[in-house]
Amino acid sequence: MNEVLRPFADCVGNNLWPIFSESPILNTRYCTMFPIREQVAAMPTLQRVPRGHWFWGHLAEFNRDRLGFLTRCAREQGDFAYFRLGPKRIVLLSHPDAIEEVLVRQSRWMRKHYALRFFRPILGEGLLTAEGERWTQQRKLMQPLFVPRRVARYAATMVEFAERHIAAWQDGQARELHAEMSHLTLAIACKTLFDTDPSADAAGVFHSLRVALRESNSRFGRFLPLPLWLPTLSNVRLRRSIQHIERIITQLIAERRSRNSPQGDDLLSVLLHARDEVDGSGMSEQQLRDEVMTLFLAGHGTTANALCWTWYLLAQHPQVAEQLQDEWRRVLGDRPVTADDLEHLPYTRNVIYEALRFFPPAYLIGREACADCIIAGHPIRKGTTLLMSPWVVHRDERFYADAETFRPERWNDGFIKRLPKYAYFPFGGGPRTCIGNHFALMELPLIVATIGRRFRFALQADRPVRIWPAVTLRPENGLHVHLRANEKHGN
Ligand code: HEM
């Protein structure tokens, strides 16, 4: 079949005949006689968000207030909003059907978007950034380690680490919860995925990651990012922080190699023992570094942010925190929470779902069309960047009544089943869906229950919280709180 027509055929079930067909999915008429490129060219262009600069496009607005800009685009222009960031043509998709088409139905014609390439210096070609055959192989290799039954084995470690982490916390202390949660989730990821303990340098890792993410993120907002070898201040900072994290990763791999043990249960062991099906060779050092780095970063940062926003929301909604206490008292009594308890903690689950709706850590997901195609009736040219924002869709009143209110009860009575599928997508979807979604959905309630039973948090009035939409959604200067020990567990 003609390669140009292939994406089109894919979304209509290979039904290329008769010459004119009506697609139920695309809700549009198309002609199979002419190449899709010509049909796309003949279709009306999308509406553009007004007032973009002739040269920079909407870069200034995007950099000034990313979340506000995306929300305005969707609310003013509708489900397909067109804008330009420097030379890049962008379409923001805000309808669940269109999002499903990009992430699932037409995913094979999509690759990760250009902004992710700015993170290549850190991530290399790990699972998050790899494409094609390499991605398929690596995903196949790692997927079995992330199925629910497998991740349930990590529950005890998660609870134990959370208990240990707060052992020294005292009523009335001031703490910065973003750093605290990052240290905790990093320790859990390292233990469960790599069977190692990085806690000696947790603060250093936290600092280097912060710098690396800040600098990479600012490259996303530039017209043309300067090559990394140029010795600008920003590049030097970025390179130094990457080198620091790389040293830790290299030590981690070397330490495991030196153990010379037979294949164990953890991810690092599986990666070290993986052999190519054809020539029997193992992974190169670079490949190993990239995969470990990706899991190291993806495996803890997003979860730390999700925890942080959950604590922030609970601090502002004491009645929700109170209902959680009731549920934990009723179901758990005084014993530690386990993986088996989670199905009996529906309110805890609702709070996590609602926190991920309200502050989705991965607030922007992107793809680049590798061919001209039609998404939900709209022509998309090859090379166009397609952005989908859980932040925008999760706050859309069409799907969520009173969307700007934090209301865990909305998830009662099978609400999730009644939602259009891609109206809620904190973990993305389709083949590139988050590999750690079960891991995160177990870790989050276990940590919230373990820490939440012992402490509540009062926001420090003189340290306002600012949302920083970097790679993930995080509090810009941290989340500063005073600890309040719960009566029963007071220390
Ligand atoms: C609340 C926590 C988390 C959130 C919100 C989250 C969100 C996401 C999203 C939205 C994607 C898809 C990106 C895209 O389609 O472009 C993704 C991919 C990924 N996530 Fe997560 N994630 C979380 C936790 C985790 C954890 C705990 C791990 C590992 C243990 C992990 C590892 C990954 C990896 C490796 C990918 C790339 C998968 C692929 O492309 O095959 N994530 N995550």
Identify low-pLDDT runs.
1-37, 39-46
Q: Number of DSSP strands?
A: 14
Q: What do the pLDDT scores average to?
A: 85
Taking all Cα atoms into account, the compactness measure Rg is 23 Å
CATH superfamily: Cytochrome P450
Terminal-residue CA separation: 71 Å
The structure class reads alpha+beta
Which second-level CATH architecture applies? Answer: Orthogonal Bundle
Bound molecules: protoporphyrin IX containing FE
* Fraction in helix: 40-55%
Main beta-sheet strand count, sense and barrel state: 5 strands, mixed
Strands of the biggest beta sheet: in what spatial order?
Answer: 3-4-10-7-5
- Integer tally of domains: 1
CATH topology (fold) name: Cytochrome p450
Shape verdict: globular
Helix run count: 21
CATH class: Mainly Alpha
Strand content of the residues, in percent?
A: 5-15%
Explain what this protein looks like in three dimensions.
The chain is an alpha+beta fold and about 500 residues long. The protein has a single domain (about 125-370, about 375-490), classed as Cytochrome p450. The chain has helices spanning about 5-10, 35-40, 60-65, 65-75, 95-105, 115, 120-125, 130-140, 150, 155-165, 175-195, 200-220, 235-260, 265-275, 285-300, 300-315, 320-330, 345-360, 390-395, 415-420, 435-455; strands at about 20-25, 30, 80-85, 90-95, 110, 175, 365-370, 375, 380, 385-390, 455-460, 465-470, 475, 480-485. Strands 3-4-10-7-5 form a five-stranded mixed sheet. A three-stranded antiparallel sheet has the order 6-14-11. A hairpin with a 2-residue loop joins β3 (about 80-85) and β4 (about 90-95). The longest helix has 27 residues, at about 235-260. Mean pLDDT is about 85; it is low at about 1-35 and about 40-45. It binds protoporphyrin IX containing FE. The site of protoporphyrin IX containing FE has 23 residues, from α15, α16 and α21. Protoporphyrin IX containing FE binds near residues 295, 299, 434 and 435.
